[in-house]
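Table S2 (continued). Query chain:
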Amino acid sequence: MHKLITILFLCFCLSANAQDKTDHWNTLAMVNLESKFDDMMGMVIKTATPTAIAETLNGKEIEIRGYIIALAAKTELSHFMYSRYPQNMCFFCGAAGPESAMQVFMKSGEKVDYTPDKVIIKGTLTIQKGDPSGLIYTLSDAEFIKVIK
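Corresponding output:
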């Protein structure tokens, strides 16, 4: 019985690891957080610096699952925030860290319809460091792949 439980546990772990390889949010979440006082903002802020593992995605085309956070009350968007979590749990609402969000710029002339559902998009990831007022991650030349129901 013990052997069976061990085998099932190993299968579960291998299955979870196979899934993690396609979830780029897990890699992007690998950051070092530092709290420090920012003179310009007049308050303590957290800065996130991506680790070397997260840096391996810089400049690469990635496909990533997440939620559209609209910047304007438009149905068709060419620039928007994108979050690992739904809007009620996202970084902008204070429920997650800066490593769980990115800004997205669609390919020239392309727009995406806002949806509260999880979606897949693809684009080129850029990682910026050292600017606590900006987002760490930007996805450029993005394409909408599909809605996940």
